[in-house]
Design goal:
Elements: H1 5-21, H2 24-30, H3 36-40, H4 58-65, H5 69-85
Keywords: Signal
Signal peptide: 1-29
Domain Bifunctional inhibitor/plant lipid transfer protein/seed storage helical: 35-93
Amino acid sequence: MAPSTVPRALLAVSLVLLVVGGLGPAAEAQRPGGCVPQLNRLLACRAYLVPGAADPSADCCSALSSISRDCACSTMGIINSIPSRCNIGQVNCFF
């Protein structure tokens, strides 16, 4: 996979996992309303997660900017824990 596609591919997988599965009952219970409604808005970005896609739409950018810091950080923590749970190496997106 080319270096420029790794972050997009990771984001695509992450969005699918989190939008379909949510953050789970424990994370949702910590915050009234949870992250799921915020993450569901990211469906507006799905067309922009493939290599060669155009720039994101205003709807996508708005959805991304509306995600709270707590939700974003919790989501990234979950995403970063997945490789070790699958017994594979951590994904390093720094080149």
